[in-house]
Specification:
The chain has 159 residues and is of the alpha/beta class. The protein has four helices and nine strands; from the N terminus they run βββββββββαααα. Helices cover 30% and strands 19% of the residues. The strands form three sheets. The chain has a three-stranded parallel β-sheet with strand order 1-4-7, with no helix packed on it. Strands 2-5-8 form a three-stranded parallel β-sheet, with no helix packed on it. A three-stranded parallel β-sheet has the order 3-6-9. The relative contact order is 0.16.
Length: 159
């Protein structure tokens, strides 16, 4: 656990929106809650119970999912599937997975190597177009939810 991570233990949360970035949640119960991960420090979750909760991604986390979806739609299925395989195996994703797509060959290399550049450029252009046009994964409303007040999971203070 990092120095900045706060621990919440044995708390009950009912009908609340809780941003979970940077928290260590232990033996808590969540009922009818909205749990939001924004892409900050990953939470640590141990022994918690979740009943009728929704999990949402906002900010950097949502943009990461958008990027993965655009990669998949843009012809880079192997990068996305490799990432998911690493998640399933509980091993870190190799950094090289992010660069396994074709890379344009510098102009000073042989003409044989440059023959495939138009195809690679077209593929990269298609990916860029798909990234620009891809819809958001989920729009997060910033207004307070109707189902209950938001509160800081540590202090219990409402907003």
């Amino acid at each position: 656990m990092s120095e900045t991570q706060k621990t919440i233990s044995g708390r009950d949360f009912i009908s609340e929106t809780i941003v979970i970035d940077g928290y260590s949640l232990e033996n808590c119960r969540f009922r009818d809650c909205r749990l939001v991960y924004r892409g900050g420090e990953p939470p640590k979750i141990r022994g918690c119970r979740f009943d009728a909760c929704r999990w949402e991604f906002d900010g950097a986390a949502a943009r990461t999912l958008q990027f993965l979806a655009a990669l998949h739609q843009g012809g880079f299925e192997s990068v996305v599937e490799g990432t998911f395989a690493s998640i399933r195996e509980m091993t870190p994703a190799p950094i090289s997975a992010s660069v396994s797509a074709p890379v344009p060959v510098p102009a000073k290399e042989s003409s044989t190597a440059n023959a495939s550049q138009p195809q690679q450029a077209a593929r990269m252009s298609d990916l860029a177009r798909r990234l620009a046009d891809f819809p958001p994964v989920r729009i997060i409303r910033r207004a307070k939810p109707k189902i209950g007040p938001q509160r800081d999971p540590e202090s219990g203070a409402g907003s």
